[in-house]
Amino acid sequence: MSTTPNPTEAEETQEQLDRVLSAAADCTWSQTSPHTRADALAAVADALDARSDALVREALRETGLPEARLTGELTRTTVQLRMFAEELRDGSYLRIALDRADPDFALGARPDLRRWLIPVGPVLVYAASNFPFAFSVAGGDTASALAAGCPVVLKAHPGHPETSRLTAETVLTALRESGAPEGTFALITGRQAGVSALRDPRVAAGAFTGSVTGGRALFDIASSRQDPIPFFGELGSINPAVVTAGAERESAEQIAAGFVGSFTLGAGQFCTKPGILLLPSGSELPKRIAELARDVPAARMLTSAIAERYRETTAQLCELDGVEVLVRGTEEPDPSGVARVSPTVLHAGGASELLTETALLEENFGPFAVIAEYSSDEELRSVLAAVPGSLTVTVHAADDPDSDERRSLRDLVALAAAGSGRIVFGQWPTGVAVTPAQQHGGPYPATTAASTTSVGTAAIDRFLRPVSYQNAPEFLLPEALRESNPLGLPRSTHQPGASQRWTAPQQ
């Protein structure tokens, strides 16, 4: 096996790919009960924990990420597997609804209707480069698709091939020992194999985390198929951060340190990195941010390809007219062969300059940030409205803003909600809590499906679709919809006569 961080991807042969896709299409994983799938996911989590030392050691060698970061990320991976297991045991994710037949329904006789959610079918998951565990082989996309009852075909990322192989081996063994049917999970490698699989009619959905260019190309393939399929892509996000005058007066040093720590975390290779900081005119923060950024040591990029794109994009942005380079990052060699880079910070001048130099409004994946200053609420709002869809918007305001600032903040937050999936107050967006209330998604280009999330238990919704049964005989109903409710799943029931509350009162 190559020890370089960018080995040539081994391509699956068409025969190998066909076997994998046929096994996924024929797999009976969707027919297993939620409790059975829950036990299997918990077993996968246990197996990954048991092999954590070997997995972290290999990921450390392949990615150069800090050991503590990788250990924490593997913990996140097993925690989210167990969270989905609990979601399955609870059963409410199926949103089962029973409407009893009602001859006196307000709109005419109502038939017996029973609705629930079923798996969409085999899911093709593309592993990400920057999270070798949490968004890779056994990451959130895989966990949520398996929880939904969908077989998973995982396209490994070439940036950490051996980590992927070891993780997949662990997942497969745990699933088999749990009684999961053949075809429940498989790993494939190769760029062409990933494209061919997406075009194959046996694949029912795709999930991707990566670049705008790559994700959009795959989205277009999924959408242009003879039978288009949903494609849940997380692409690029600039994640603007706004600081009010009141916040700067109260917390200037904390804001400067927090911003530098956030945009340089993991060498700036986080999808939630705050790429633009909007400050009130005359702010002293740019000077302090530059001082702090100069002290941040160079860190290794994930792959040579990512480093090359970052190098080219940064050079182009530094040459834009009217842009001041506050900190020009350096590049150092690394024994791995992948460059180590230090932060670059640009000052674009007035915030309205961002409206003409739109290249500054695009994600630059690495330790790079743009600062701009706004002179009025109107200028700030016009810039925020022009920012492409983002995963997050961050707001730093005074602890007790005056009435004028409160009005401005209401408008600001409304814009933030229209253009992002998560609004962060008084903190920074890097670091995504894995919880039921999390929303990790946003309008394009942040994602290709703004109504969904790829983090948190609601991620399961992506791989389910609703089906209703009307006047079905009891023996033809799925067990979950039968009167006896043998699986004991929660469900809402509407009895005859309940619709009377919707009718107009009698005169």
TrEMBL record:
Q: Which domain of life is it from?
A: Bacteria
Q: Which keywords describe this protein according to UniProt? A: Oxidoreductase
Q: Aldehyde dehydrogenase domain: from which residue to which, for each copy? A: 11-399
What's a Pfam family in this record? Aldedh
Q: Which Gene3D superfamilies match?
A: Aldehyde Dehydrogenase, Chain A, domain 1 (3.40.605.10), Aldehyde Dehydrogenase, Chain A, domain 2 (3.40.309.10)
Q: Where is the composition biased (Polar residues)?
A: 492-507
Region annotation (Disordered) ranges: 484-507
* Database matches in CDD domains: ALDH_KGSADH (cd07129)
Q: What is this protein called?
A: Aldehyde dehydrogenase (NADP(+))
The organism encoding this protein is Saccharopolyspora ipomoeae
Lineage, broadest ranks: Bacteria, Bacillati, Actinomycetota, Actinomycetes, Pseudonocardiales
